[in-house]
Amino acid sequence: MIEISDIRKSFEGKEILTGINGKFDKGKPNLIIGSSGTGKSVLLKCIVGLIQPDEGSVLYDGRDFTNAGRFLKTEIRREVGMLFQGSALFDSKNVEQNVMFPLDVLTNMSKEEKLDRANFCLARVGLENTNKLMPSELSGGMQKRVGIARAIVNSSKYLFCDEPNSGLDPQTAILIDDLILEITLEYDITTVVVTHDMNSVIGIGEHIIFLYKGKKLWDGNKNDITHSGVKELDDFVFSNKVMSALK
Q1: What are 113-150's pLDDT values in tens digits?
Q2: Are residues 116 and 189 in the same domain?
Q3: CATH no. for residue 184?
Q4: pTM for this one?
């Protein structure tokens, strides 16, 4: 479980996050949703430590990450996997090398152990025998799957996904959502997904936090989202751009 308490963040005097509180349970996909510019990615970066919040705290299974010393922060970071919006694969490394990168940095495993683990994770995301391909030879969906393999290669306890369906066609996006859900359930990990894709919300939104102008206005699940009674959320859900996802 990850708990966030009173997270506040400003840039150049403009408040981006205003006292965000919430819990993200393990074993289910936890979604942070909202329109562009609502603070979703800033909140995610505060949770994973890429940005230091001005106030508040982030607890990983009771461990205070925000105010932790170097040793504890390193320990927690070893347990975190991250799927970036653009996959963020190294162009100069092949698939195998990309997936093994966290093991090179964070472990003392032998080369054979790293390769075995990379092959296991590639097989788990349906990419057997792609080891020597370069990122430029992969489709967008395949790049996302390599990114997921890399995110779980270190047996992550926490998985963060920033707009995992960005740039994907609807069918491929559903496959990525299903894979995230399967991995979350299979490994009983705490998964946090930032998205504005209503297909993802309706498909895997077991727990959802809705942000609006830097504030949390609602939390709940996919079954309750269409009758939340929150005008701003209704406007987001039933906008022309996302209405098709509910049909």
Answers
A1: 999 999 999 999 999 989 999 999 999 889 999 999 99
A2: no
A3: 3.40.50.300
A4: 0.89
